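Note to self: user wants both folds in one dump. Writing first protein now.
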Amino acid sequence: MIAELYRTDAPALLALEARAQSGVSEALLTEALIDDTVYVAGRWQESQLIGYALLARLPFDAELQAIGVLPERRGAGIGGELLGAVLAVAADWQSERVLLEVRESNASARKLYAGAGFQQDGMRRDYYPAAEGAAGRENALLMSRSI
């Protein structure tokens, strides 16, 4: 089941992010749960939070800031379910587009986004710190999709 997360869900969300390693800080997640311009979707299985997505409302667009899924649950379609949920919220907000950025090396996320109709708009060179065990920095791909 996918449902909006609230302040009372903070412990479950922070524990999930600690394992999912999506790169979102504890402070940003905590603030998102109380910010009325941010929608945090949670994917529950029984009483366990197994995935989340973070969508920020902008003046004309929405920005997908993160999708995090438990490592052992990746590849099971949870990211796609969460993406569908936040796209529906962006449509309800009457956003014109949904924007996102993704690590160039994150092939599974890029495939998910392309399959949902996102197209690459640009690149930020050397934007991300290197992934664990890698040297140097990594490019961010900028993607968007009209609603």
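First done. Writing the second protein, which came from a different request thread.
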Amino acid sequence: MRLLRSTDLALRLLMRLAVAGDASPTTREVAGDMDVPYTHAAKVVAELQHRGLVDARRGRGGGLTLTGKGRTASVGALVRTFEGDGDVVDCEGATPCPLNSACRLRGALRRAQEAFFAALDPVTVADMVAEPTGTLLLGISRGPGAE
């Protein structure tokens, strides 16, 4: 299973904010740090803000901060949110699968997908930035005043 770019960015953005300390990087700074288009980062930030995981303030002194809810958010729940609850394969697409009515693969893939999410459910954003990851994240982010 491969995560969508927005899911990957959401997780990395939350991790980045979890180690930001008192700093409040802007969406543009985070997008630059992660080498993603600003518009893509802005959409992900908007979704995270809508879910109460990130506070975003505009203007001078503004920026992004991780909320308490964001720090304790389940990675499994986050992945479910961004990935949606669709099937791994599209059995009913433009050309429906002829095995659809008697297929065992679809059920097996659904169980595997749920096992994937379930393995991530107990992991929180805070867990993902525990040492040594937190220190490494600080080292790769540009931070205030960096070139």
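Dump finished. Worth passing along: The chain is about 50% helix and 5% strand.
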